């Protein structure tokens, strides 16, 4: 099977490519990645001899056409992915997430290629802090940030291309991922790499916001489950019942570094900050038989801390630039 992975030099995409090469010897993997600040060739170093990396944009119609023509399936991870950046400058989010997805859809339409679109639970907006309501595949779209609005737009394009043009596509909407190779701008790697440097974690606002954490390896087994068993045109929600407040995450990290749990700083809150995300993954579990391997968040978190401690060469080159961006917004 010839697999074209967009965004394969980013966090989730690189984990997907490494897992695919390890577990599916028959797969021939090509990565299309623009190598933005968030993409890193070295995330594919362990599989460099098995994977072709094409440096280019998903919004480049000619390049996309030739790569899609040579694929059996396109797995679409490429995106501008960070909410805080989308508040500072939404423009690349529209270009990559909306125009880029449109460009891919036109190519899979022309060539009749199977398409899987990787998306986020943030398209549904947020849930109240109190109560046990969860997102389901029928929750109305209500995105809050420029990032989530452009992901919502891309999801709706995929749905329309299925209905209007018969494109063979599926969509998955996953909750917050953690694990190796996540950019240091994101919450968990930012705090872990601060702690390595003896810098206190930085919590937006009161830290009561809740995220539904899933290990990236579990997200990726679910993506393969949808590619292989998902029904065309359907949306599958991916989550592993990992609801945890940001405050609890920071306390756990401090403890893993042998520090006082409450030794952190409160910093300026994110404008429009979503309160709580929670996923009902019963469709994925019941229909496709998927189950997560990482069921204890603290164990997965400890393994992730170990990875960042052991792989400073990977993250150190990105750290100063990420912190400089935060300094501009007082975070
Ligand atoms: P990331 O920012 O780590 O990686 C994105 C990758 O896309 C980078 O390698 C970047 O170079 C590449 N890219 C950006 N613009 C491109 C373009 N125009 N053409 C080609 N490549 C381009 O993001 P991530 O966290 O790995 O997220 C991957 C996907 O999963 C995204 O679609 C995101 O919306 C979705 N998602 C992420 C999470 C999460 O918690 N990180 C959760 C749910 C869904
Ligand atoms: O320094 C910080 N302090 C802090 O309290 C940072 C960087 C974040 N936060 C908070 C904001 C969020 O409540 O932590 C939470 C997680 O923040 P992010 O890592 O920026 O993730 P989030 O905004 O929840 O979005 C993530 O999950 C859904 C991914 O970045 C998206 O790509 C994905 O779609």
TrEMBL record:
Residues 4-299 form the NAD(P)-binding domain. CDD domains: dTDP_GD_SDR_e (cd05246). Coiled coil: none annotated. Keywords: Lyase, NAD. Signal peptide: none annotated. One of its GO terms (biological process) is nucleotide-sugar metabolic process. The keyword Lyase applies. Its cofactor is NAD(+). It catalyses: dTDP-alpha-D-glucose = dTDP-4-dehydro-6-deoxy-alpha-D-glucose + H2O. Its EC number is 4.2.1.46. One of its GO terms (molecular function) is dTDP-glucose 4,6-dehydratase activity. Belongs to the NAD(P)-dependent epimerase/dehydratase family. dTDP-glucose dehydratase subfamily. NCBIfam families: dTDP_gluc_dehyt. This is dTDP-glucose 4,6-dehydratase. It comes from Krasilnikoviella flava.
């Amino acid at each position: 099977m010839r697999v074209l992975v967009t965004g394969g030099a980013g966090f989730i995409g690189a984990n997907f490519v490494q897992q695919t090469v390890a577990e599916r010897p028959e797969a021939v993997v090509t990565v299309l990645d623009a190598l933005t600040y968030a993409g890193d060739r070295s995330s594919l170093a362990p599989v460099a001899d098995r994977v072709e990396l094409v440096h280019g944009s998903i919004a480049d119609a000619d390049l996309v056409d030739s790569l899609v023509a040579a694929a059996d399936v396109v797995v679409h991870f490429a995106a501008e992915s960070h909410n805080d950046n989308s508040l500072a400058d939404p423009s690349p989010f529209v270009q990559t997430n909306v125009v880029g997805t449109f460009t891919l859809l036109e190519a899979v339409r022309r060539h009749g290629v199977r398409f899987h679109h990787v998306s986020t639970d943030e398209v549904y907006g947020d849930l109240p802090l109190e109560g046990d309501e969860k997102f389901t595949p029928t929750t109305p779209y209500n995105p809050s940030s420029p990032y989530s609005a452009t992901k919502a737009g891309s999801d709706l394009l995929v749905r329309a291309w299925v209905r209007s043009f018969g494109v063979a596509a599926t969509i998955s909407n996953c909750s917050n991922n953690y694990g190796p190779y996540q950019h240091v701008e994101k919450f968990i790697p930012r705090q872990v790499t601060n702690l390595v440097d003896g810098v206190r974690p930085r919590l937006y606002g009161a830290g009561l916001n809740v995220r539904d954490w899933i290990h990236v390896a579990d997200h990726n087994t679910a993506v393969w489950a949808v590619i292989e068993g998902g029904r065309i045109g359907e949306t599958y929600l991916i989550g592993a019942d990992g609801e945890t407040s940001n405050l609890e995450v920071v306390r756990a990290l401090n403890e893993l570094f042998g520090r006082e749990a409450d030794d952190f700083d409160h910093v300026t809150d994110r404008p429009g900050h979503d309160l709580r995300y929670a996923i009902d993954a019963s469709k994925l579990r019941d229909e496709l038989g998927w189950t997560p391997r990482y069921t204890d968040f603290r164990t997965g978190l400890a393994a992730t801390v170990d990875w960042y401690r052991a792989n400073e060469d990977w993250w150190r080159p990105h750290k100063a630039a990420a912190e400089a961006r935060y300094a501009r917004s007082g975070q």
